Amino acid sequence: MSFLAPALLASLLAIVLPIVVHLVQRERRRIVAFPSLMFLRKIPNQSVKRRAIRHWPLLLLRVLAFVLLALAFARPFWPGPVGAATTGAGGREVVILLDRSHSMGYGGVWTRAQDAARRAVRELGPADHGTVAFFASEVEVGPRAASERAALVAAIDRAKPGAGSTRYGPALRAAVGLLDSSRLPRREIILISDFQKSGWDRAQDAKLPTGVLLKTVPVGEATTANVAVASLAFAHEGAAGGERITTSARLVNRAAAPVESREVVLEVDGHRVDERRVSLAPNAIETVTFAPFMLANRPARLTARLAPDALPIDDAFHAVVMTGGRVPILIVESTNPAPDASLYISRALAVGSAPGFDSTIVGVDRVTPEQVNAATVVILNDCRPPSGAAGRALEARVRVGMGLLVALGERSTWPAEAPDLLPGALTGSIDRAGTRGGALGFVDYGHPVFEIFSAPRSGDLTAARVFRYRQFTPAGPVLARFDDGAAALVERRVAAGTVLAWTSTLDSYWNDFALRPVFVPFLHQTMKHLGHYVEAKPWRTVGEVFDKTESPLTTVSDRGSGSGVRDSRLGTRDSAPGPQRQTSGTILTPQGRALDPAANSPSSFQLEEPGFYEVRTANQKSGEGAFVAVNVSAVESDLTPFDPAEFVAAVSAPGGPGASGAARELTAEDHERRQSLWWYLLAGGLLLLAIEAIVASRYPRIAQG
User: Fold this and answer.
1) Element (H, E) at 59
2) Per-residue model confidence as pLDDT tens digits over 572-620
3) More confident residue, 319 or 324
4) I need a surface site. Which of 2, 205, 274, 559 has the fewest CB within 10 A?
């Protein structure tokens, strides 16, 4: 026997303690009343019998407990033979990792992968343990069998390629976790895959511990040819009764050979509406545009489908498209406005399509409460706020969620009796007409209004020259300042609504901002922010977790209303915002299978198949629920392989066996970790101490020695 920490054997000296305790003389004194001691001589009691050990069983219990504890802390082990970690004698713990990402469905790749996995099971020896694990972006552990090989083979036979993407890092970490609990002397991982280049992220922390052998079994095709539909794009054009939608499909040829006259079809709600023929050059990208179709105020399910090839799962791309919606904007002018006071605002809002903007211009003295209530956003363009019933309606609507933009020009005032909505105090004006004018010196690019300008070459907001602006003491966050530090754009939250104050005009009198290319996207982003507009995602990707309460749903049976805004979450939103509708009921997969409610949370579920998921409430029929379009990852369509030997070298431990299986002697730490004798010794020592405590407490005289 050897010890991992032999220095701790010095603790065996502790066995002296119970021996000393047993030998200690404990003098017993008995007081006897005696009339006189003058005639007695004091004689010391030196009885040899009192110094002898009288209770050997108790002493042995105590000594043996100390011995077991000392040995446990010294970590004993029995040395094993050389080469026990490699291809020599001893059982193996084998984890068979079988790639089932959707690229494995190419041609005959999956058949070869199953054959390789069955062969690995057949090669397991009588003393070997085997585990089959299937992986893509996630890992699914199959049966773990010590001797029953039929269960492993049956799991391999039942498996099929999925819709996920290849991720080698999580698969290796899962395999190492399975091997860590094994006490067999040899540990191996057999990785069966097409070794797709996109699945290996070199930045991932995936390293094999020392002593783990990694064997790779490549089963991919030597040459591949794959054409996939990578994405869809939509152009919206207003038309009577709805919108005219023009769909474009982006096709990618992943092969070194050209593709001639491949058919691609556009389906709307399951009906074929158009088809095209396309030819693609080697490793090329081509965009195909279909004939436009009419879309009423309801969403539609779109699928662009290629003629099937050797990898059919990426030959179809799904999306849910809906009308962009019309956001009603009320522009309020002063009593005597300039001739083109609202010209630039109305022209900029007229070019929007997703969403579209319906703008109405009215004088401040003629605005009615009905006009205010019908708007999603109100723009006070260089004027005072409306008074009377219209003013009260404006304040009430802002407090329940409507947006308000105030452009502060020379005609702008804010009387004391006006609604308390302005995000600051308005005073005089600053005139910089005698110079080159001012410019924006600070912009909060993290705010939704300016977020689209944060990327390079997305527009220069500082290029606009401002020659006059109002002095304004902000009472809320300042989103932009001029180069002299004066506030340019200030925000204020009023209950559920939002108010923005721009301290110059939105025309060409005080600045040239309206003449700059950034004016239109700035105004559109401002309207979206004030109107709480959230753009719907037309599709999702396999593997995402879909949140039914926070993420957009598209409901086929909902209709838009003339007085509301198209809501990307659930079809429509009333003019007065309210709580989001909760979606509950049955969830159907693209294959028509109902998801188990117990396996999913009430508010979310995982998207595992490409196609259209349908979420129905209790009173909805088939086809009337909310649809979620799901597609496979476009990255997985690239079948370019990499060298497995390079992969093995990158993940193997330095000096480890790697893929070669070279002989390696087990270290003392390996032997001790596999045998774990210390655990049994520690348990035995603690058990003896417990027995000693019981015996000593019940027989106090014995405890005294």
Assistant:
1) helix 56-73
2) 333 333 333 444 578 899 998 888 766 666 678 889 999 999 988 777 7
3) 319
4) 205
Q: Give the pair of three-digit tokens for residue 93.
A: 């713990």
Q: Catalogue the E-assigned strands of 283-352.
A: 285-289, 293-295, 300-306, 316-321, 326-333
d(C-alpha 648, C-alpha 653), whole Å: 10
Confidence of residue 88 (pLDDT cuts 50, 70, 90): very low
Q: Which residues contact 170 (CB under 8 A, 6 or more apart)?
A: 135, 137, 138, 139
Q: What CATH architecture applies to the domain 92-223+641-665?
A: 3-Layer(aba) Sandwich (3.40)
- Angle of helix 109-122 relative to helix 149-158, nearest 10 degrees, comes to 180
Say which CATH architecture domain 227-316 belongs to.
Sandwich (2.60)
Best CA proximity match to 306, nearest among 328, 340, 327, 280: 280
Tokens for 328? 């009603």
- Listed by start position, the domains of the chain span 2-34+49-80+681-703, 92-223+641-665, 227-316, 326-530
Number of H helices, E strands in the chain: 14, 32
- Looking at residue 623, its pLDDT comes to 65
| Residue 155 banded pLDDT, cuts 50, 70, 90 | very high
- 228: which strand partners? 252
Determine which of 175-189, 430-444, 447-461, 674-688 has the lowest per-residue pLDDT on average. Answer: 674-688
CATH code for residues 326-530: 3.40.50.880
Relative to beta strand 468-474, strand 440-443 is unpaired
Residue 679 pLDDT: 78
The reported pTM is 0.66
